[in-house]
Design a protein that fits this description.
The complex is a heterotrimer. Chain B has a single domain, classed as ABC transporter involved in vitamin B12 uptake, BtuC. Chain B is 75% helix and 3% strand. Chain B contains eleven helices and two strands, in the order ααααββααααααα. Chain B has helices at residues 2-32, 39-56, 60-85, 94-116, 142-164, 166-176, 178-183, 188-214, 220-235, 240-260, 263-280, and strands at 132-135, 138-141. In chain B, a hairpin with a 2-residue loop joins strand 1 and strand 2 (138-141). The N and C termini of chain B lie far apart (45 Å). By secondary structure, chain C is an alpha/beta fold. Chain C is globular. The chains are: A mainly alpha, B mainly alpha, C alpha/beta.
C-alpha cells in the first residue's frame, strides 16, 4: 500500500489515502478542514460584525458601549484559556485589568497635565509632588511596554508562588479573589498616588489625539475591537498547537501529565500569564473608551462579572467567552435601563441557572438537548 | 504594655467572628466539596434576625440572648433551603458551587435591600455591653468579651456534638470516608443536609456578634466572606482545630497591623501574609492525611 | 468537534449582535423622530431647545449598591419636587417627564448612564450623583455632551464646571464654619476621624491648615476604609489622646461601627464630643445608641423654622409617610429642581448656553432659607448651620452664619490656604 502525501495543509488524523477508499478521504478531509478552520471562519464573522457593521450602524454612544464590552471580552478570552482549557478558575482578573488600565490612565493623565507638569489630583489630594515611579509613564512607548510587561511579571511571580506549591482548584480561585480585593484596597488606600477611590479620570488626549473628537473615538473603538480579534486568533492557534493539547491534558489529568515528565505548574503558569496579559490589554483600552478607571473596575465584584460572561458563553469553546462577555455587558446595560431595581436578580439568577443546568455555557445547550432527545429515543425503543 | 494588649484583645474578638463565619465554610467544603460564597449572607441573615428579635422583645439584654438561637435557626433554615434547592445537585463541584453561590449571594443581598431597605437597621446593644472591665489596668470592652465568649461557647457546643453525639459520629464518618460510611448504613444525604444547616446556623450566630458592632446592612456579608475563606484555606479545610487557630491568628495579625499602619494597609498586608504562609504550607495548618495524591 | 459545533458560538454571536442591532435600530428611529438634540436648535419650532409639551429630565441615583442607602432619599425628594412643579404647570408650561436610571453605586456606571441620558434620551438636564467619584466620572461626559448636571451633595470643593451646578455645600460653607464654631467653644485639641477616600482626606487637609491659623492642635488623624466597620483600634487611640472634640468625616455604614466603638470606650457628648458632617436625620436613629448632645455641621436641618420648610416637610411626609425625616442632601436635591426651573424661566430657554448665561443671581426660597446661584462657579450661597442632636434624633440649631455664605470652592478668599501643603 502506498501512502500518498496529501497536498492539503495539515490534515490531522487523515487516513493515508488508499486508492480504494475513494469516498472517505474526501469526507474526512473536508471535516478536518472544517474542524481546523471553522473557528477561524467564526472569528472572521465576528470581525465583520465588530469592525465593519457596528461602526457604520451604531450611534456613538452605543458604539462606545460596545467598545467597553470588547474590552471585557478581551479579558474573557484570557479567562477562557486559563479556566476553560486550563482548569484554573481565575477570580481575580480584575487585578490585571486594573494594571493595564492604570498604566494607560497614568500616561493619559500625564498627557493631559502637559510636559513637565503634575496630574491635577495630586495637587488636590496631596501636596503637589508626583512619585518618581509615575515619570516613566510620560512616554507612550514605555506605557505600551508596561501594559504587556507589568501583568506578565506580576502574574509570573504570583503564579509561580501559587502554582508551584500545587495550590489548585478552589484554593486557587479563592486566593485570586483575595488578590483582587487586596489590590483594590491598596488602590483606595494610596489616594495621593493613584487617585484612591475616585480612580483616574478627566483625560483630554489619547496619544496626541483629542479624546473628544468623534472620529478619534471611533478609531479607539476599532483598535479595541481589532485587538479582540487578534487575541482570538492567537488563542485559536494556541488551542490547535501542542501546547493547547498539553493544557487540556493538564486540566483533565494533571497527575498523568506529571508522570509523563512535564511540570504541570509550568504549563498552567504559561496560560495564567497569557490570560493576565490579555486582561491587561482589555483594561488599557477600557480607559480611553470609558474615560475612567477606578478600584471598582478591579475589585472582587468586577472580577466576578468578567467570569460571568465566560460561564454563560461556554468556557471551553473559542468564541464562547468573547461572545458571552459581550452579551453579559449588553445585558447589564439594557437590563439596568429597563429594570433599574430588579436587574441584580437577573444577574444573580444568570449565575444560578447557567451553572445549574448549563455548566458549559449556552454553546452546550444544543448538544445537551440532542443528547436528551437521543437518550429518550433509545429508551423508547428498548421499552417497546 | 497597653499597646500590645489592646490590639491582642481586639484581634481575638475579630478572630472570634471570623471563626464563626469560617466554620460553616470549612464544614461544608470539607464534607461535601461545596464552596458556599453565600455564607456572608447567612451572617447578614443572623444580623437581621437580631434586629427583628429586638423589634419583638423590647428589653435589649433579653433580646440579644434570645436573638442567638433565633439567628441560628433562621440562618440554618436559609442554608437548608439553599442546599435542598441548588447545592444538592452540585456536590464535588467546588468551582461550580463557588460561582452558583456568588449568584445566590447577589440575589440575597438585593432581597435584603428590597425587604429591609438599603439603609441598615440599628441594633441596640444592652447596657451591660457598654463600657469595659479593668483587669490589671487594661480596658477589656464588654462587647469584645461577649463576642469571644459567644465563639468559645459555639466551639465547645460543636466539639461536644462532634465527639459525643451519634450525629457527630456520623459527620466524622462521612468526612473521613463517605463511601464506607454509606455501606455502614449512614444516610450521607441527610448528614450533608444537617451539616449545611449547622454551618449556616453558626454563621447566623456570628451575625449576631457583627450586628452588635455595626448594626445591620445588606452589604455586611461581602465584608467578611473573603477573610473567612482565607481563614479556611490557611487552617486546612475541614479541620476544626485549624479554623480556630487560623481565625485567631488572622484576627490578631489584622488588629496589630491596623494599629501600626492603617485600616486599609492592614487588609492588604494580612492577605500578603496568608499568601506567604501558604507558600510554606499550602495545604493549610492541619490536614486529613489521606492516601490520595493531592 | 463536529461541524455544527464549530458554528454554534457563531450562531450565538450573530443572535446576540442582531438583538443589539434591533435595539439600536429602534433607538435610532425614535431619536430621529424627536428633536435631534438640545443644541440642534434649527429644526425646533421655538428656539428653547425643547419641543413638545413636556421636558425630559434625568434622575440618576443609585438604587443598588453601597450608596443606595443615601441616594434613595434624594430620588424621593426629586420626585416630590417634580410632581409639585407639574401640579403648578410645569417649567415654562412644559410638564416634567423624568427618566430614572440606576448608578449602581459605581462611577463607571454613572458615566455610562449620564451619557445615555444626555445623548440617547436627550434630556434637558440630569439630577443626581452622590460620591465625588461618581461626579468626577460624569464630569467629562457632561462637558463633552454639553449638558447640565445638578449635584446635590456636600463635597470637598476644588472644582467648578460650566456644565455642573453644585447645590450641596462646598468646604467654605460647611467645614470652615464648623471650625469657627469649635473655636468659639474654646476647643484647643481636635482629633480627625474619617473614611479613607477623597472627601475626608481633602477636608482634613483644609482643617489642618485652618486649625493652625485658629490655634487648635490636631492630636490625631485616623482613616478606615469605607467597607470596614471596625473602629475599635482607632477609638482606643482617641480615648488615649483625650481631645476636646472629634471631627468626624466618616461616611456610610462605617459610621455606625465608629459610634458604637466610641460609646463602648466611654466617650460621649461630655467627653470628647463629636462634630460630624455626614450624620443627618436619616443616619442618627440608625446608630443604635443615644447621640443626644453631639453636633453636626450642615446647611439644612429638619428643625429649621421657615414657612418653606414647614410646607416641604408636610408635602414630603404626605407623599412618603409620617415617619420619614428630611435631611440636607434631600433638601438640596429638592431645591436644585426648583433652581433649575428658576434659571430656565429667567433665560426663557432650556438651551444650556442660555441657562448658563442667566443663572447668576437666580434665587429660591428654599426650605433651608434663601439660596442664590453664583454664576461664576455654579455653586449656591448657603447659610452655614451647626445643630445639636436632641432626644428625638432631631437637630437643634445652636449656631448659624446668619446670612448665606458665598461659595468659594477654590478657597481663593482664604489667604491661609496652600493647596501644595500636604
Amino acid at each position: 500500500m502506498s501512502i500518498t502525501t496529501s497536498d492539503a495543509p495539515e490534515v490531522h488524523g487523515a487516513e493515508p489515502a488508499a486508492p480504494e477508499a475513494a469516498l472517505s478521504p474526501k469526507r474526512s478531509f473536508r471535516s478536518d478542514l472544517v474542524r481546523t478552520y471553522g473557528p477561524l471562519l467564526g472569528i472572521g464573522v465576528l470581525a465583520l460584525l465588530l469592525l465593519v457593521w457596528a461602526p457604520g450602524s451604531l450611534s456613538p454612544f452605543r458604539l462606545g458601549n460596545l467598545g467597553k464590552y470588547c474590552c471585557w471580552a478581551l479579558a474573557a478570552v484570557g479567562i477562557g484559556l486559563a479556566w476553560g482549557r486550563g482548569g484554573m478558575l481565575v477570580m481575580g482578573q480584575g487585578v490585571f485589568f486594573g494594571l493595564g488600565g492604570y498604566a494607560m490612565a497614568m500616561h493619559m493623565k500625564l498627557e493631559a497635565a502637559g510636559p513637565g507638569k503634575v496630574p491635577d489630583f495630586m495637587q488636590l489630594y496631596g501636596n503637589g509632588t508626583m512619585p518618581s515611579w509615575w515619570e516613566p509613564f510620560r512616554s507612550g512607548p514605555f506605557t505600551l511596554f508596561a501594559i504587556i510587561a507589568l501583568p506578565a511579571v506580576v502574574s509570573f511571580v504570583l503564579g509561580y508562588a501559587i502554582l508551584k506549591r500545587r495550590v489548585k482548584g478552589a484554593y486557587f480561585a479563592i486566593l485570586t479573589q483575595a488578590l483582587a480585593v487586596a489590590f483594590s484596597t491598596l488602590l483606595i488606600a494610596t489616594i495621593k498616588q493613584t487617585g484612591g477611590f475616585n480612580g483616574l479620570n478627566t483625560f483630554t488626549k489619547f496619544f496626541g489625539q483629542n479624546l473628544y473628537d468623534p472620529a478619534v473615538k471611533k478609531n479607539i473603538y476599532m483598535i479595541a475591537a481589532g485587538l479582540l480579534i487578534v487575541c482570538l486568533v492567537i488563542v485559536w492557534q494556541l488551542y490547535r498547537s501542542r501546547y493547547g493539547e498539553l493544557l487540556v491534558a493538564t486540566r483533565d489529568a494533571e497527575e498523568r501529565i506529571r508522570f509523563l515528565g512535564y511540570d504541570p505548574a509550568n504549563i498552567k503558569l504559561a496560560a495564567f500569564v497569557v490570560a493576565a496579559i490579555m486582561a491587561s490589554i482589555g483594561g488599557a483600552m477600557f480607559v480611553p473608551i470609558a474615560g475612567i478607571i477606578s478600584p471598582s473596575n478591579v475589585d472582587a465584584t468586577a472580577s466576578i462579572m468578567l467570569i460571568a460572561g465566560v460561564a454563560l458563553g461556554g468556557r471551553a469553546s473559542l468564541l464562547g467567552p468573547a461572545v458571552g462577555a459581550i452579551v453579559v455587558g449588553y445585558g447589564q446595560t439594557t437590563l439596568s435601563e429597563q429594570f433599574p431595581t430588579q436587574w441584580i436578580y437577573f444577574q444573580g439568577g444568570l449565575f444560578i441557572v447557567v451553572l445549574l443546568f448549563l455548566p458549559f455555557g449556552i454553546t452546550s445547550l444544543l448538544p445537551k438537548l440532542k443528547e436528551l432527545a437521543s437518550r429518550r429515543r433509545i429508551t423508547g425503543e428498548s421499552a417497546a | 504594655m497597653d499597646a500590645l494588649t489592646t490590639p491582642f484583645l481586639t484581634g481575638t474578638a475579630i478572630g472570634a467572628i471570623l471563626f464563626l463565619a469560617a466554620l460553616g465554610l470549612t464544614l461544608t467544603f470539607g464534607q461535601m466539596g461545596v464552596i458556599n460564597m453565600a455564607n456572608g449572607e447567612f451572617l447578614m441573615a443572623g444580623a437581621y434576625a437580631t434586629y427583628l428579635t429586638q423589634q419583638v422583645i423590647s428589653s435589649t439584654g433579653l433580646s440579644i440572648l434570645v436573638a442567638i438561637p433565633v439567628a441560628f435557626l433562621i440562618a440554618g433554615l436559609l442554608g437548608l433551603l439553599l442546599e435542598v434547592s441548588i447545592i444538592q445537585w452540585m456536590y464535588r463541584r467546588p468551582l461550580d458551587t463557588l460561582l452558583v453561590t456568588v449568584g445566590v449571594s447577589m440575589v440575597l443581598q438585593q432581597l435584603a435591600r428590597d425587604v429591609f431597605g438599603a439603609q441598615g437597621d440599628p441594633v441596640r446593644p444592652p447596657s451591660w455591653m457598654r463600657g469595659s472591665i479593668d483587669v490589671f489596668g487594661y480596658h477589656w470592652p464588654h462587647r469584645q468579651l461577649f463576642t469571644i465568649v459567644l465563639a468559645v461557647t459555639a466551639l465547645a457546643a460543636l466539639t461536644a456534638l462532634l465527639k459525643r453525639s451519634a450525629f457527630g459520629r456520623r459527620i466524622r464518618a462521612t468526612v473521613q470516608n463517605r463511601d464506607l460510611a454509606e455501606t455502614m448504613g449512614v444516610s450521607t444525604r441527610s448528614v450533608d443536609r444537617l451539616t449545611f444547616f449547622l454551618g449556616s446556623g453558626l454563621a447566623g450566630v456570628g451575625g449576631v456578634a457583627i450586628a452588635l458592632i455595626s448594626g445591620t446592612n445588606p452589604t455586611l456579608g461581602a465584608t467578611y466572606i473573603i477573610p473567612a475563606f482565607l481563614v479556611v484555606v490557611a487552617g486546612g479545610v475541614g479541620q476544626l482545630k485549624g479554623t480556630v487557630i487560623a481565625a485567631w491568628t488572622v484576627g490578631v495579625v489584622t488588629a496589630f497591623l491596623t494599629d501600626w499602619t492603617s485600616g486599609s494597609m492592614a487588609q492588604v498586608l494580612t492577605f500578603a501574609a496568608v499568601v506567604v504562609f501558604l507558600q510554606i504550607r499550602p495545604q493549610g495548618l492541619f490536614t486529613v492525611r489521606t492516601r490520595g495524591l493531592a | 468537534m463536529s461541524m455544527k459545533a464549530q458554528f454554534r458560538p457563531l450562531v450565538v454571536a450573530v443572535a446576540a449582535l442582531s438583538l443589539f442591532a434591533a435595539a439600536c435600530g429602534s433607538d435610532k428611529k425614535s431619536s430621529s423622530d424627536s428633536a435631534s438634540g438640545t443644541k440642534d436648535v434649527a429644526a425646533a419650532s421655538s428656539d428653547t431647545c425643547v419641543t413638545g409639551s413636556s421636558v425630559k429630565l434625568g434622575f440618576l441615583n443609585s438604587t443598588s449598591g453601597a450608596m443606595a442607602i443615601s441616594e434613595q432619599t434624594v430620588r424621593d425628594s426629586l420626585m416630590l419636587a417634580a410632581s409639585e412643579i407639574n401640579a403648578g404647570g410645569g417649567i415654562m408650561g412644559k410638564k416634567i417627564k423624568f427618566i430614572e436610571e440606576d448608578g449602581q453605586s459605581e462611577p463607571t456606571v454613572f458615566a455610562e448612564k449620564i451619557g445615555k441620558l444626555l445623548t440617547e434620551d436627550k434630556v434637558a438636564a440630569v439630577f443626581g450623583g452622590w460620591t465625588s467619584a461618581s461626579r468626577k466620572a460624569m464630569l467629562p461626559v457632561v462637558e463633552g455632551a454639553d449638558g447640565l448636571l445638578f449635584y446635590p451633595v456636600q463635597y470637598e470643593g476644588l472644582e467648578a464646571s460650566k456644565n455642573i451646578y453644585y447645590t450641596g455645600a462646598t468646604t467654605n460653607q460647611q467645614i470652615i464654619p464648623a471650625m469657627d464654631f469649635l473655636k468659639s467653644k474654646g476647643v484647643k485639641t481636635l482629633f480627625l476621624a474619617g473614611s479613607d477616600y477623597v472627601f475626608p482626606r481633602t477636608a482634613n487637609k483644609i482643617i489642618k491648615q485652618y486649625a493652625k491659623v485658629l490655634g487648635i492642635q490636631i492630636v490625631g488623624e485616623e482613616y478606615v476604609p469605607l467597607t470596614s466597620d471596625d473602629w475599635t483600634t482607632q477609638v482606643a487611640k482617641i480615648a488615649a489622646a483625650k481631645p476636646d472634640f472629634v471631627f468626624n468625616t466618616i461616611n456610610g455604614s462605617s459610621n455606625v461601627g465608629f459610634i458604637k466603638a466610641y460609646h463602648e470606650a466611654g466617650l460621649g457628648a461630655t467627653k470628647s464630643p463629636i462634630i460630624s458632617v455626614s450624620i443627618a436625620e436619616e443616619e442618627a436613629p440608625a446608630m443604635g445608641v443615644n447621640l443626644t448632645g453631639q453636633y453636626a455641621a450642615w446647611n439644612y436641618f429638619e428643625s429649621v423654622k421657615s414657612p418653606a420648610n414647614t410646607a416641604f416637610i408636610k408635602a414630603f411626609q404626605a407623599k412618603y409617610g409620617t415617619n420619614r425625616v428630611t435631611s440636607d442632601p434631600m433638601e438640596a436635591a429638592y431645591t436644585s429642581l426648583y433652581l433649575y426651573k428658576g434659571m430656565v424661566e429667567k433665560a426663557k430657554s432650556f438651551c444650556v448656553d442660555a441657562v448658563n448665561a442667566s443663572s447668576g443671581g437666580v434665587s429660591y426660597a428654599a426650605p433651608e432659607g434663601t439660596v442664590v446661584v453664583n454664576g461664576e462657579n455654579h455653586h449656591i450661597a448657603k447659610t452655614g448651620l451647626i445643630g445639636q442632636i436632641n432626644a428625638s434624633n432631631q437637630f437643634d440649631v445652636v449656631w448659624s452664619s446668619g446670612k448665606p455664605i458665598e461659595p468659594d470652592p477654590f478657597l481663593k478668599g482664604y489667604p491661609w490656604w496652600n493647596p501644595n501643603q500636604g
